[in-house]
């Protein structure tokens, strides 16, 4: 029987698109990785959302790293995430010799979303759906490129934080999860890289206010995926070589309770 290879789910923050050279380099590394293992790309687009909302003279606020999203802003949020960000990354993938398929969380029932809390407006919490579509695309060597726009069962469009989206996709596929951003990983109060983070160190750094804003959501999402998958999740810089990230030579590894020495 053919060996089933564990997919790699790579999430990139939207700020990557502000640096097409680094983005192109990463896509080139993803192309090389695809010859070894299936890859799924999940992306954010926070800066694009900000720019578009500002151009429309709309204001936007975040609570604990999550954007408060009134339903009337969803056309712009969808346009930025499922439109501009998704198609820009697909274009960069094509430039790297990859055949991408641009998707959102709702396509093929990949995830189902529920409204988080009406105080956030149209913000969704995703849960695992069906893997069939992704399995078909991966077996045909396509690169799924997934934006974090989802829908609830009534068809209400919801804005999902892209780290949470990637977490759920990694859980659905049993994949290895890399959360790539514009920082080397999770930094301590002296701006030094923390190489390993378990739940008690997370609680400590959050209480001190060292882990905050977007990193708060990212670390919580990483720990959720690590616990669900019973394996570490990596938070690293998209400028680092992908092989170094995969070989744990750089970045922060978020370790689930099942793998800490006290477990
Ligand atoms: N302890 C920390 N270590 C590293 N970055 C942190 C930390 N606390 C807060 N941050 C902030 O979190 C940001 C990464 O989160 P975010 O902007 O949401 O990234 P992305 O858009 O790539 O998902 C960093 O650029 C940094 O400003
Ligand atoms: C609910 C919520 O916060 N949604 C995020 C979705 C995009 C995102 O997560 O983008 P980054 O990965 O670039 O931060 C937002 O509107 O910014």
Automatic annotation (TrEMBL):
Identify the residues that bind substrate.
Answer: 45-46, 67, 159
Pathway(s) served: Amino-acid biosynthesis; L-arginine biosynthesis; N(2)-acetyl-L-ornithine from L-glutamate: step 2/4
- Signal sequence extent: none
A Gene Ontology CC term for this entry?
cytoplasm
Question: Ranges for the Aspartate/glutamate/uridylate kinase domain?
Answer: 8-237
Provide a GO biological process annotation. Answer: L-arginine biosynthetic process via ornithine
Q: Check the record and name the SUPFAM superfamilies matching this protein.
A: Carbamate kinase-like (SSF53633)
Q: What class of enzyme is it?
A: transferase
Q: Which family does the record assign? A: Belongs to the acetylglutamate kinase family. ArgB subfamily.
Q: Which HAMAP family match?
A: ArgB
**What is the protein named?**
Acetylglutamate kinase
Q: Which organism is it from?
A: Alteromonas lipolytica
The uppermost taxa in this organism's lineage are: Bacteria, Pseudomonadati, Pseudomonadota, Gammaproteobacteria, Alteromonadales
